[in-house]
Amino acid sequence: MLKGIDPVLSPELLMHLSAMGHGEWVAVVDANFTADHLRNGKPLVRLPGLSLARVSQAVLSVFPLAEDVSHPAAYMQVSGSAMGHRTDAQQAVVNLLAHAGVSESQVQAVERFAFYEKVKQASLLVQTGEGTAYGNAMFCKGVILC
Q: Which domains does the chain carry?
């Protein structure tokens, strides 16, 4: 155990988040996501029983978002939905980001199949126990200045 570290952050997850560099992406995906197929040999950490919002909150507690990209956060758009429609799980992540100072205009809704392609470029996948369809998000790591 470490003092001040969210208990959701396992040693394995902390190791992978710490190893990521500026501009790399982490995908936080739901329980039904085809993570094994899309990870392309990249690390996959499973956190069953935890929601998208809870895992995103833990990751973002140690993970600065990139300030040099227009959309440092993204979620999978619900197929066939109107632009701007979000599931409760997606809205919870947008609210979490807003609380951290990220505007809604910086959070991109990505079409389902384009999201799958984007995940292939992620450096790390974290599979949650989120049972809601389209409960997937991605975050771009920023710089930590010492």
A: 44-140 (3.40.1650.10)
